Amino acid sequence: MKEFANKFYTVGVFSDVKRALDKMWHDGLTYKLIKLKFPGYVIKIIHNYLHNRTFRVRVNNTYSTNGHIQSGTPQGSSLFPSLYNIYTHDFPEHPTVSTCLFADDSAMLSQDTQLKYTLKNMKNFLDRLQDWLTHWRIAINVDKSQAIIFRKWGVIDPPPFHLTQFDDNIQWVSVVRYLGLHMDSRLTYKKHIDFLSEKFWGRIHLAISLVGRNSPLSLDNKVILYKQVLRPIITYASPVWGAAAVTHMKKIQAIQNKILRLMTNAPWYVRNDVIHYDLHMEPISSYITKLARHVFRSIKNHDNPIIRAQTMFTYPHPKLKFAYATAKWQIPLKPP
């Protein structure tokens, strides 16, 4: 974030592992368990759990012969996330590339003051990554992989050449989705907020009988339903995008205003801050501030230095600060 604020170029490549649940190589996993010096009894338990599994195919009333499963974990296995983390613990490293791994979703980021050096570093890393993927029999959905250039100021055009994986070009995009968060090239999060708005109103159509004017629920139960089910939709990942421009944040507040008026069947002349006060409901900006502070407090002692460093950053631009620094609307002590 510090380099992004100082006009560095950040090239991001976002990849998805093809059928990670079904393609984890058993013998490769056993080798890594031994290399990491897991206790022998643990290795034997995991080995017996995964090996000697068979399958067969049925077409109408005809069955194929039994085949042996040499990769993957059983469907619904709670061990899969831990085993997959072990299997990918030696993911390639590069001095100028940061990697972010979450299950089978991976993000690679490279930064530099000049775009050509940033792209060169990313290309070198992708070549190393391709060798690692081939060696450990991991397949990538290249058609779903995307590349993007992040930069706060200045015109950003896709470079004239493509980054590649397994001889296929990676598509350049202006907005990328990672772990449900839509990130545009300038990190304004406008696309993400628009997406949350559409998703929220789609859910409202399903819940209108419970939160609408004619709902049999009491107002207290409507508020509980909104806080526990509906509000998390429009605040997903808000500690990240809470620094969005005030114009974008107002869209989220407008959604809350509308749904509260719908729940209370308030006349048009009743002010929104009065409705918030009567329902003991905090403004969206205050709620996001509370979430963000909780998240940042919890990562101070995180093992990952990249995550831990996020608490030590202060945005240098005087007009662009975190949402909790610009939020001026607070719940009044008494209704006006």
TrEMBL record:
Signal peptide: none
Pfam families for this protein: RVT_1
InterPro entries, alphabetized: RT_dom
Key words, A-Z: Nucleotidyltransferase, RNA-directed DNA polymerase, Transferase
Limits of the Reverse transcriptase domain: 1-177
Any one Gene Ontology molecular-function term assigned to this protein's record: RNA-directed DNA polymerase activity
Protein name as it appears in the record: RNA-directed DNA polymerase from mobile element jockey
